[in-house]
């Protein structure tokens, strides 16, 4: 069963992404956040419409908002959407 995207679920997703998938978070900022010069990023929150990230650009922290292509239904939709976005970004890079 999937959870609604509550603040607690957002925190759980962000913690997991930042600790285990830092490279993916950087890709989201570089590709979808149109900040290719970012060297790293941190996911701050995720909601039904998009995610709020902070990119590291030339030593500065820059807030970046990435909108999703559809409204997320729940945490499983978030999971599948983040995976699909990463695959799409990696394919575009090659």
From TrEMBL:
Residues 10-85 form the DUF2470 domain. SUPFAM superfamilies: FMN-binding split barrel. This is DUF2470 domain-containing protein. It comes from Acaryochloris thomasi RCC1774. The lineage of its organism: Bacteria, Bacillati, Cyanobacteriota, Cyanophyceae, Acaryochloridales.
């Amino acid at each position: 069963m999937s959870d609604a995207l509550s603040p607690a679920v957002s925190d759980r997703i962000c913690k997991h992404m930042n600790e285990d998938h830092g490279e993916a978070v950087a890709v989201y900022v570089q590709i979808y956040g149109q900040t290719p010069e970012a060297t790293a990023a941190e996911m701050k929150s995720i909601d039904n419409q998009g995610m709020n990230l902070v990119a590291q650009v030339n030593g500065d922290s820059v807030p970046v908002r990435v909108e999703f292509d559809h409204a997320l239904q729940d945490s499983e939709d978030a999971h599948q959407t983040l995976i699909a976005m990463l695959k799409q970004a990696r394919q575009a890079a090659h």
